[in-house]
Amino acid sequence: MKGNGPKFESYYGKPVVKAPVWSPLDIGGYLFLGGLAGASSVLAAGAELTARPGLARAGKIAALGAISASAAALVHDLGKPERFVNMLRVVKPTSPMSVGSWLLAGYGPAAGIAAATAVTGLFPGIGKAATIGAGLLGPAIASYTAVLISDTATPAWHGGYREMPFVFVGSAATAAAGLGMIAASTAEAGPARRAGVFGAALETVAMHQMRQRLGMVAETHHQGKAGPLLKAAEVLTIGGAAVGALLGRRSRVAAVIGGAAMLAGSACTRLGVFHAGVQSAEDPKYTVQPQKG
């Protein structure tokens, strides 16, 4: 016994569950960029239907750029591009990875057409249909990665399976809102400002509820690499949403500052959640002790 309590170990001193071997940069980027893409499509569809062309254009371009980079990060971590293609050979409704792969296969072309028609001005009718289609798929794109990581044995992820989708949707909303506030004029960015407040509130409440239900496993949110990232995420997300809501409607500088803070906060949330999961898998006590309670 060392320190103030027992040290829980498995046979040969190895972790009870296998820690994720994913690259933090690749998979952390995949989680963040996928959320940004999905929420940007929702924001773009709303802007399209309410005659806010600047905000709609920014959301469409952001969605295509983010989902392309997200897919590239995933393929890079997989090591071989054909592994992603192989996931499309079958449909398994019980597999979050299979469902996510098919979501990406349907969402990507819609986001691409929406962005291409917005940039070129060609085929506006097709572009509007693609924008609405991408917007309808957007919530699933923003949240399915939460289901994906929760469907593992990693204690800090699996234990938060109920709240994790709400954390990710809130984080995605703040990211898209932040980018919208940066890219669109203050006159058009009203929906982005409101989305920022909604996303910050949803993420904050869901994160608090998740930590309560995780119990001792929530320690991983305050330690190691995850601790500073999740603390920064909270400050940046709430602060950015407040600046955007209170000052962003009149000040372009405040809108950009608030938007950048929310974007950074969302990225910190995804990376922090990733590192918390890795830490919870590496330390046997986070697997053993909750099962003894």
Task: Write a concise synopsis of the structure shown.
75% of the residues lie in helices and 0% in strands. The chain contains eleven helices and no strands.
Could you outline the blueprint of secondary structure elements for this entry?
Elements: H1 24-49, H2 53-78, H3 81-86, H4 96-120, H5 124-150, H6 155-158, H7 164-183, H8 190-214, H9 226-247, H10 252-282, H11 285-292
Mean pLDDT across all residues, rounded?
Answer: 89
Per DSSP, the total helix count is: 11
In angstroms, what separates the terminal alpha carbons?
Answer: 20 Å
Q: Could you say which structural class the secondary elements and strand pairing correspond to?
A: mainly alpha
Q: How would you describe the shape?
A: globular
Tell me the strand percentage band. under 5%
Query: Major sheet: size, sense and barrel closure?
Result: none
The counted number of beta strands is 0
Rounded to the nearest angstrom, the radius of gyration is 20 Å
Helix content: over 70%
Task: Name a few traits of the molecule.
0% strand, 75% helix, single chain, globular, 293 residues, mainly alpha, 11 helices
Your description of this structure?
The chain has eleven helices and no strands. It is mainly alpha-helical and 293 residues long. Helix 1 (24-49) packs antiparallel against helix 5, helix 5 (124-150) runs antiparallel to helix 7 (164-183) and helix 7 (164-183) runs antiparallel to helix 10. The mean pLDDT is 89.
